[in-house]
């Protein structure tokens, strides 16, 4: 426990929702890391998970559905002193924001991205999300989903992410460990957090996940990309949780000429003598 | 004033030849206006540039030509009808034409002899200068070619230009003006320079004609200026990244054309709701959908003033000419930050791609807005204040926590659904428009200030209208004037309401089908126009064409 307290607010989530555990883990993690609330920015898009910025006392950015991903990385570009934490659901992060998810992997901007993955759309009352199991029956997928479930971890590893992990909202200690490592990791770090939706997903319940998840131990070589991909493909009777892949690589900020010395763009102005020079170039 | 056209297929170097030529002409002291007509393809087709120049400062293009540089036969076939008697068609000897005004030159052979067939275009450059009686100093030629071609090719290009210069006789008299110390720039370049002057730190966009050259210019300067230009994965990311950067305190901008703007619309509403300053450039091209990608139109006006679900405060500034694009871009950043709203810059391909000589711009003319410190004590991002503007703090810059929220919210940025809070927040946001209206810039009056015939236009119609009223007033008879709107949303009404009652005829002149400015004026003021001069084929009205059509319609 650090010197700062991250208060939380009353939420609009259902009793028993996995989000409650995730919120509590986030609060514990931030306090454990001894971060000052004023230096932390929590970003969300739209959805139940994306309400996270509403419920914790930090700087908060509640953007548009799928677009928190774009805002989060840009806020980090504008002020790299901020600890930027992005919370999206599986619909927000992998569906509506799927394109931004892919390209944020390539940017490798130093943010932590926590995806609350319950395989279902909660806010719109229970339609299939990109990660829904094949055959999942919903009010829209009335004959069961016929689409192949999206594999976010495999995508993240293939797409160039340096830190790819999975956790489960029902294992708070494990989740806090993953959150902590993701926040401390230099570069884009994603944690896919399995969570039950007590209202709309009657198949992938707490006990469904609890029975299947197993923690990766030292026998897993997280530095090996191919082995990590193999682990990422394991989802069914057994689901690995932990850091599947971890490899530090140069970040966007380290590679960018305008950022690599720690420059802050916020409140900055340009040198007008340079503009004068640019005018002369046109004569 | 002379008018020279360079035409050929895409890939034949029309644009490069025009760029070198316009610069050499400008260095001789002539004012220049170059209009670019491009097809949306990388090879083949027909592209041309029209360079209008003379002792004065041309503000728009003209159709009738004094000379044609034809890089292929098609150029002659398409443009011959616009050649004035006594003009010339400069082409390679290999081109089949028996036109009485053709001047055939062994350009390819001269180039070959110099050692590189690809410098034939420079032979034409030299020859054209001589035909117009424009002096070409070796020193100038070297300095200009150095800017356009690789160092190892400078020498041969200058020699080619000199060979062309010596190969033809002089045909016209040259009258130099005062433009040699001026800048020669495109509308997108002055817009980008305005953004740099305003302190833009973050520009994120997805490439889209004809807006891309804004991003290219800023990218070229980004390393030296210390800013970030991010090519986003799509238009939606472009604007949402700009909003994230703006929230964190960087002056931010995105740019696109109508199609990309359509994709950005939800985030535009978010900027209004979350009260995030943002500048968005929409460089219009003909729609709908993909439309004519490399051509011009003014058909997004009614779209951008209302784009977004719900209602938000916003400002729309139509850019009228090259200088205006610079100063209004600086102002747009100030207005966005002062009122915490999105400001849309409405340009178009005609202004964006055309180059013009203008006096050197003054980056210190408009002071950059400095936000006021809010009161100390408990901080709420959306605090109710007397004028609706809440003191804006930045995340990480003080102990105060800063919110941004796309949901309806309370003063602290927490989701709120109550009736009273919703109403107060709507009043607060929309109330900012009344303040903004107090500092609107009235449209500019061209020609007669108490005219019998009042022409109404906006944005890039400025140049053509300036020439049109001049031509119409020269005829004697009726008095003609024009009002050209720059600030266009909210619509400034004072001058219009003053001038309209005494004018016998009101005519809107626009580059669209429906007469969008006329409709807007009618909606806001009740003033109705009598007729419209419209064009929507992707080609800009010239001053001459406007004047002709006004006369033909009996106004």
Question: What can you see in these coordinates?
Answer:
- The complex is a heterodimer of chains A (283) and B (555).
- Chain A has 283 residues and is an alpha/beta fold.
- Chain A has a single domain, classed as Thiamin diphosphate (ThDP)-binding fold, Pyr/PP domains (Rossmann fold), CATH 3.40.50.
- Chain A is built from 11 helices and 8 strands.
- Chain A has helices at 18-32, 52-55, 68-78, 90-96, 98-107, 152-159, 172-184, 206-212, 225-232, 252-255, 272-281; strands spanning 40-44, 59-62, 83-89, 112-117, 163-168, 189-194, 213-215, 239-246.
- An 8-stranded mixed beta sheet of chain A has the order 2-1-3-4-6-5-8-7, with helices on both faces.
- In chain A, strand 5, helix 7 (172-184) and strand 6 (189-194) form a beta-alpha-beta unit.
- In chain A, helix 1 (18-32) crosses helix 7 and helix 4 crosses helix 5.
- Chain B has 555 residues and is of the alpha/beta class.
- Chain B folds into 4 domains: 2-181, Pyruvate-ferredoxin oxidoreductase, PFOR, domain III (Pyruvate-ferredoxin Oxidoreductase, domain 3, 3-Layer(aba) Sandwich), CATH 3.40.920; 184-358, Rossmann fold; 374-439, no CATH class; 444-552, Rossmann fold, CATH 3.40.50.
- In chain B, 38% of the residues lie in helices and 21% in strands.
- Chain B has helices at 14-27, 73-79, 107-114, 120-131, 138-148, 151-167, 187-197, 212-225, 235-247, 258-274, 301-306, 322-339, 349-353, 419-437, 462-474, 494-499, 516-525, 543-552, and strands at residues 2-10, 31-37, 44-54, 65-70, 83-92, 102-105, 183-186, 202-205, 228-231, 252-256, 278-284, 315-318, 342-348, 355-358, 403-405, 444-447, 453-458, 480-485, 487-489, 505-510, 531-534.
- In chain B, strands 6-5-4-1-3-2-14-7 form an 8-stranded mixed beta sheet, with helices on both faces.
- In chain B, helix 17 links the parallel strand 20 (505-510) and strand 21.
- In chain B, helix 3 crosses helix 4, helix 3 (107-114) packs across helix 6 and helix 7 (187-197) packs parallel to helix 12.
- The model of chain B has no long low-confidence stretch (mean pLDDT 96).
- At the A-B interface, strand 2, helix 3, helix 5 and helix 11 of A face strand 7, helix 7, helix 8, helix 9 and helix 10 of B.
């Amino acid at each position: 426990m650090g010197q700062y307290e991250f208060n939380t607010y009353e939420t609009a989530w259902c009793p028993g929702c996995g989000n409650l555990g995730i919120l509590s883990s986030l609060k514990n993690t931030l306090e454990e890391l001894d971060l000052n609330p004023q230096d932390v920015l929590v970003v969300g898009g739209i959805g139940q998970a994306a309400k996270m910025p509403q419920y914790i006392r930090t700087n908060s950015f509640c953007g548009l559905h799928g677009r928190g991903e774009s805002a989060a990385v840009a806020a980090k570009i504008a002020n790299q002193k901020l600890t930027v934490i992005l919370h999206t659901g599986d619909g927000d992060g992998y569906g509506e924001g799927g394109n931004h998810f892919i390209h944020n992997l390539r940017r490798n901007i130093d943010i932590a991205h926590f995806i609350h993955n319950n395989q279902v759309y909660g806010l719109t009352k229970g339609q299939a999300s990109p990660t829904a199991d094949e055959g999942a029956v919903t009010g829209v997928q009335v004959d069961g989903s016929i689409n192949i479930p999206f594999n976010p971890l495999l995508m993240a590893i293939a797409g160039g992410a340096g830190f790819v992990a999975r956790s489960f909202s029902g294992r708070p200690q494990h989740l806090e460990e993953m959150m902590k490592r993701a926040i401390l990791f230099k570069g884009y770090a994603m944690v896919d957090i399995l969570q039950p939706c007590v209202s709309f997903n009657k198949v992938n319940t707490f006990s469904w996940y609890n029975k299947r998840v197993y923690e990766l131990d030292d026998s897993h070589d997280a530095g090996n990309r191919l082995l990590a991909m193999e682990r990422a493909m394991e989802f069914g009777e057994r689901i690995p949780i932990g850091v599947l892949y971890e490899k530090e690589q140069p970040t966007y900020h380290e590679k960018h000429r305008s950022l690599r010395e720690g420059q802050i763009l916020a409140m900055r102005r340009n040198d007008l003598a340079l503009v004068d020079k640019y005018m002369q170039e046109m004569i | 004033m002379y008018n020279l056209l360079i035409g050929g297929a895409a890939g034949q170097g029309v644009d490069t030849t025009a760029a070198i030529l316009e610069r050499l002409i400008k260095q001789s002291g002539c004012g220049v206006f170059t209009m670019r007509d491009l097809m949306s393809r990388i090879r083949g087709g027909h592209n041309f540039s029209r360079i209008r120049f003379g002792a004065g400062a041309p503000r728009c293009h003209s159709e009738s030509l004094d000379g044609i540089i034809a890089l292929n036969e098609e150029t002659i076939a398409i443009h011959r009808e616009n050649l004035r008697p006594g003009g010339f068609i400069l082409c390679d000897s290999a081109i089949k034409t028996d036109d009485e005004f053709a001047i055939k030159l062994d350009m390819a052979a001269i180039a070959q002899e110099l050692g590189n067939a690809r410098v034939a275009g420079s032979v034409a450059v030299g020859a054209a200068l001589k035909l117009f009686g424009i002096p070409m100093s070796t020193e100038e030629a070297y300095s200009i070619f150095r800017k356009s071609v690789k160092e190892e090719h400078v020498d041969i290009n200058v020699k080619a230009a000199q060979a062309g210069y010596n190969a033809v006789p002089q045909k016209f008299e040259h009258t130099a003006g005062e433009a040699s110390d001026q800048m020669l720039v495109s509308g997108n370049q002055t817009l980008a320079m305005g953004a740099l002057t305003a302190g833009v730190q973050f520009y994120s966009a997805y490439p889209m004609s004809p807006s891309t050259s804004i991003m290219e210019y800023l990218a070229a300067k980004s390393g030296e200026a210390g800013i970030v230009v991010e090519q986003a994965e799509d238009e939606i990311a472009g604007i949402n990244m700009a909003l994230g950067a703006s929230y964190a305190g960087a002056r931010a901008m995105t740019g696109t054309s109508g199609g990309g703007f359509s994709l950005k619309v939800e985030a535009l509403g978010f900027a209004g709701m979350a009260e995030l300053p943002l500048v968005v450039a929409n460089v219009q091209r003909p729609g709908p959908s993909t439309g004519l990608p490399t051509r011009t139109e003014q058909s997004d006006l009614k779209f951008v003033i209302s784009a977004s679900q719900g209602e938000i405060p916003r400002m729309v500034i139509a850019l009228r000419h090259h200088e205006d694009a610079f100063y209004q871009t600086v102002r747009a950043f100030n207005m966005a930050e002062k009122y915490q709203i999105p400001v849309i810059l409405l340009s178009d391909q005609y202004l964006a791609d055309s180059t013009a000589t203008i006096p050197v711009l003054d980056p210190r003319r408009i002071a950059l807005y400095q936000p006021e410190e809010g009161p100390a004590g408990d901080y709420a991002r959306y605090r109710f204040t007397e004028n609706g503007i809440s003191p804006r703090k930045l995340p990480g810059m003080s102990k105060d926590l800063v919110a941004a929220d796309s949901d309806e919210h309370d003063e602290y940025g927490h989701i709120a659904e109550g009736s009273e809070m919703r109403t107060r927040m709507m009043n607060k946001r929309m109330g900012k428009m009344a303040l903004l209206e107090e500092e609107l810039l009235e449209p500019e009056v061209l020609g007669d200030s108490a005219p019998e015939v009042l022409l109404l236009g906006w944005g890039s119609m400025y140049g053509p209208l300036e020439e049109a009223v001049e031509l119409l007033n020269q005829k004697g008879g009726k008095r003609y004037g024009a009002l050209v709107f720059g600030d266009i949303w909210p619509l400034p009404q004072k001058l219009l309401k003053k001038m309209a009652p005494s004018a016998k005829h009101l005519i809107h002149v626009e580059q669209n089908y429906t007469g969008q400015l006329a409709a807007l004026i009618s909606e806001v003021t009740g003033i109705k126009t009598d007729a419209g001069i419209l064009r929507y084929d992707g080609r800009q009205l010239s001053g001459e064409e406007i004047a002709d059509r006004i006369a033909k319609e009996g106004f």
